[in-house]
Amino acid sequence: MPVSRRGFLTLSGLATAAFALPGCDLGSMFAVPPRDTVYFTPNDKFYTVNFMDASYNFTRDLDVEQWNMVVKGAVQNRLVMKWRDLLNRESFDQAVTLMCIDTLPGGTSLGTAMWRGISLKKLLQDVGADEETARDVIFRAADGYHDSIPFSRAMEDDVMLAYLMNGEKLPKDHGFPVRLVVPGLYGIKNVKWITEIEVYNGDYQGYWQQKGWTDDGTIHIFSRIDSPGHYQALQGQSQRLRGIAFGGPETIREVQLSFDKEKTWVSADLEAPLSPYTWVIWNYDWAAPKAGKHYVAVRAIDAKGKVQTAEIARPQPAGATGLHSIVVDVLNV
Ligand SMILES: Nc1nc2c(c(=O)[nH]1)N[C@H]1C(S)=C(S)[C@@H](COP(=O)(O)O)O[C@H]1N2
Ligand SMILES: [Mo]
Questions:
Q1: Does the predicted model carry a pTM greater than 0.85?
Q2: Which of 63, 86, 99, 278 has the fewest other C-beta atoms within 10 Å?
């Protein structure tokens, strides 16, 4: 989009104001508005990552009657499934939070949905997967993407081939007609537009692993302050802070806040999560001690007692770490 004269003037006007106003600091230029804290992310607000050139085709029209999915490799009975075969199998529902490995502290590339699908374990049992020799299960997709999960993980009850998302047919962007949902593992392992499942006797290196990214993909502990927003001005002393925390493969036991640059921590209240596989919502009623700018940080502790690390790691190769913090400006205390 070309920068209009008007747009340019507005931008430079803002910058001048930030420097010229007494007491105005630059942080306010990076203000982030408060976010909604929800149990379920509506499908049209759910983040999406489609990075293959060909992904684009599959976010558009796909004739489901033409689609099929092959289950092959170290199995007794190779199987070709059509859309109807999928729908005819026993299904189950499960609330799961999906999170991209590119999510930074405080980031937004995660969402929670109620998924309906079939059990991968039962499918692998029905085709007679060779439990003695199988090491990985490979998923190949219509856009050329491919990744694997360990066979032992594939045989757990929570791994599903999903075709409904929040009660709707899986939206095209999210992998219609069928995608993998594997709780606790980053988005990269949740292959969309599946056309082929292969039981494999070796250690498979998928699309991102060939580029140096993790083959494990276990989600790191994450927490976020949704409200107030960063650099939001708050009226009065009593304030409600609210946000989410997500433990990946573990549930969250505790969420803590710090108001003194991470020296001491206080516990927030947790709402009950929708399932062991989703984020939890936390709330904290704060009595601001004085007017002015306050720094607030959040961290979470999982069911095993593991404390979210403050150490900053970039997303590559195994997912980011670090804490989310905000600055709030309290008026009228
Ligand atoms: N076939 C295919 N599967 C894929 C991808 C893709 O580009 N193609 N992106 C992956 C990544 S990086 C993420 S984070 C999730 C995103 O799923 P969503 O778009 O439904 O949120 O899908 C994963 N599965
Ligand atoms: Mo991702």
A1: yes
A2: 63
- Can you tell me which atom of ligand 1 is nearest the CA of 180? 24
What residues does the ion ligand 2 have nearby, CB within 5 Å?
49, 100, 187
Asked if residue 165 lies in contact with residue 157, where contact means CB atoms within 8 angstroms, the answer is: no
Confirm if 78 and 70 have CB atoms less than 8 A apart: yes
- The answer regarding whether domain 2-41+218-332 maps to CATH 2.60.40.650 reads yes
Of 115, 73, 120, 66, give the one whose Cα is nearest residue 94. Answer: 115
pLDDT tens-place values along the chain, 333 residues long: 223 333 232 333 333 333 333 344 555 678 999 999 999 999 999 999 998 988 877 777 778 898 999 999 999 999 999 999 999 999 999 999 999 999 999 999 999 999 999 999 999 999 999 999 999 999 999 999 999 999 999 999 999 999 999 999 999 999 999 999 999 999 999 999 999 999 999 999 999 999 999 999 999 999 999 999 999 999 999 999 999 999 999 999 999 999 999 999 999 999 999 999 999 999 999 999 999 999 999 999 999 999 999 999 999 999 999 999 999 999 987
Is 170's C-beta closer than 6 angstroms to any atom of ligand 1? no
**Is residue 145 in contact with ligand 1, taking CB distance under 6 Å?**
yes
Which CATH superfamily, name and number, covers 43-211? Oxidoreductase, molybdopterin-binding domain (3.90.420.10)
